[in-house]
């Protein structure tokens, strides 16, 4: 097995500038950048690349990375936008033999216009959700959604990515149209880069860095999907101008609507970057809490202006692989776990009315606890005692996150964040067994589908809720597979021993 990937996290910047000769599939090369000279057969460097050069750049590999991270950015973009690249099918759309006498119209109230400081984050998350439905790895979706939004923003008369949050300003003019334009121009922004040489496109020069991640969300038996998540391997996936190496993971389980969970996932990266810029010397757990406080401040204003009635849980984890430490911050009952070589341990505690400390705090704040449907609820409504949003429920529903920080031990392999749709059907032993089963049934190259497997198993075991899982690898996936893989020879010996016992 080859060495763990070198992630270049000291700089965490896209690979740029001149580099050594790239190589095609099956060969090794330190980079896939290639300088095209004017007199080469590929054509002029400033013009469109030839088909041969495009193929060359698509198939080139990063030799110092592993698994999907060896692949070029061009190959991911082409896979994601395959339908658009193929263009319209031959022929014309079929028409009905007899035209309908009427056209059914579905009416929906138009969404409220967002403030200018929220447009860019809303757009990035909307593009991310769209890309996730097409099947590429989550880290690629984070990376590409930012790039597409930034590309479109450059052509916008208003540079929304430069609009900063100001508590006493709430300008919404033309923002609904602006948000729609981001989604409408996704393919146009991607295509513009595909018709460039790698050398001339910063987007195509991207080199994957940070921890490996896996994430999935499934609607389950609910009518609506109110879960959202983030899984950033480092800050490069949040903002390409940043060089911060710390990973950020989060799960947000919405209630009373998807608005608050969607807002959290769309803007957590902005408050995290803001916090890191001004509080980087503080302990990691304090930075994480400050980031959630800023997020809730912004969400509270938006909730009040747009009359959002719901809220969202939050469980977040910041991972500093350089200092070998991580921090959790959470509100509500979405759990956070750490898996080592022996077990999965739950790190968080549920903020629910059944917790004596939480129940006492609710009553001291003026709330009451009622048993509804066999479980305690705050004022007979919510089975949580802390959440982001839930403005009408304050102060009984607290917006103050609980935190913890710990060192990353040698035997730690995974951070697992989930919603209660997972913890309702699986305990910590179940989660460990699920990871082990997946490792033994699948090759290491499929590590990014681990979260998908756990979500589907939760549905199969009767979870009626939305289910979401985010996994951060504290060691390269290859190490997890080495540790948990059961050798075929050992299996055969165990089977022979069992047969001997049966014969006796």
From TrEMBL:
Query: Keyword annotations for this protein?
Result: Hydrolase, Metal-binding, Protein phosphatase
This chain's source organism reads Caenorhabditis nigoni
Which family is this sequence assigned to? Belongs to the PP2C family.
What residue spans carry the region label Disordered? 1-32
Against InterPro entries, the record matches this protein to: PP2C, PP2C_BS, PPM-type-like_dom_sf, PPM-type_phosphatase-like_dom
This protein's source sits in the domain of life called Eukaryota
Q: Drop me one GO molecular function for this one.
A: protein serine/threonine phosphatase activity
Instruction: Read off the SUPFAM superfamilies from this record.
Output: PP2C-like
Please report the name of this protein according to its UniProt entry. PPM-type phosphatase domain-containing protein
Q: Which residue spans traverse the membrane?
A: none
Q: Which residue ranges have biased composition labelled Polar residues?
A: 1-20
Identify the residues that the record assigns to the PPM-type phosphatase domain, covering every copy: 210-474
């Amino acid at each position: 097995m080859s060495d763990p990937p070198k992630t270049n996290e000291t700089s965490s910047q896209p690979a740029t500038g001149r580099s050594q000769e790239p190589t095609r599939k099956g060969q090794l090369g330190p980079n896939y950048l290639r300088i095209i000279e004017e007199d080469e057969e590929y054509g002029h460097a400033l013009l469109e690349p030839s088909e041969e050069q495009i193929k060359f750049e698509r198939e080139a590999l990063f030799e110092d990375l592993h698994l999907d991270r060896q692949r070029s950015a061009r190959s991911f973009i082409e896979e994601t936008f395959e339908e658009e690249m193929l263009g319209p099918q031959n022929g014309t759309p079929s028409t009905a033999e007899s035209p309908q006498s009427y056209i059914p119209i579905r009416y929906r109230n138009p969404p409220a216009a967002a403030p200018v400081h929220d447009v860019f984050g809303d757009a990035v998350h909307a593009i991310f959700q769209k890309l996730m439905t097409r099947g590429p790895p989550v880290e690629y979706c984070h990376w590409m959604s930012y790039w597409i939004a930034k590309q479109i923003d450059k052509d916008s008369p208003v540079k929304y990515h430069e609009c900063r949050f100001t508590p006493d300003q709430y300008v919404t003019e033309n923002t609904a149209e602006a948000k729609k334009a981001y989604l409408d121009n996704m393919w146009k922004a991607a295509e513009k880069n595909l018709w460039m040489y790698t050398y001339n496109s910063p987007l195509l020069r991207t080199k994957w860095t940070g921890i490996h991640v896996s994430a999935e969300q499934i609607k389950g038996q609910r009518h609506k999907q109110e879960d959202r998540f983030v899984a950033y391997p480092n800050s490069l996936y949040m903002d390409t101008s940043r060089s911060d190496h710390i990973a950020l993971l989060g799960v947000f389980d919405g209630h009373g609507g998807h608005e608050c969970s969607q807002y959290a996932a769309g803007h957590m990266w902005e408050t995290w970057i803001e916090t890191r810029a001004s509080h980087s010397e503080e302990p990691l757990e304090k930075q994480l809490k400050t980031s959630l406080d800023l997020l809730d401040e912004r969400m509270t204003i938006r909730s009040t202006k747009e009359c959002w009635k719901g809220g969202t849980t939050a469980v977040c984890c910041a991972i500093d692989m350089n200092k070998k430490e991580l921090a959790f911050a959470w509100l509500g009952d979405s759990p956070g776990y750490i898996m080592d070589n022996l077990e999965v341990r739950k790190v968080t505690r549920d903020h629910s009315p059944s917790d004596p400390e939480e129940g006492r705090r609710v009553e001291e704040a003026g709330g009451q606890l009622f048993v509804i449907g066999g479980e305690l609820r705050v004022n007979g409504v919510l089975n949580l005692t802390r959440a982001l949003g839930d403005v009408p429920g304050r102060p009984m529903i607290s917006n103050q996150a609980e935190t913890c920080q710990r060192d990353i031990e040698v035997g730690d392999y995974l951070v697992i964040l989930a919603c209660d749709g997972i913890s309702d059907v699986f305990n910590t032993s179940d989660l460990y067994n699920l990871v082990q089963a997946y490792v033994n049934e699948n090759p290491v190259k499929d590590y990014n589908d681990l979260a998908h497997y756990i979500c589907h198993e939760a549905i199969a075991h009767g979870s009626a809720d939305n289910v979401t899982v985010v996994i951060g690898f504290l060691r390269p996936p290859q190490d997890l597979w080495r540790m948990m893989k059961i050798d075929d020879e050992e299996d055969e010996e165990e089977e022979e021993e069992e047969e001997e016992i049966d014969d006796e």
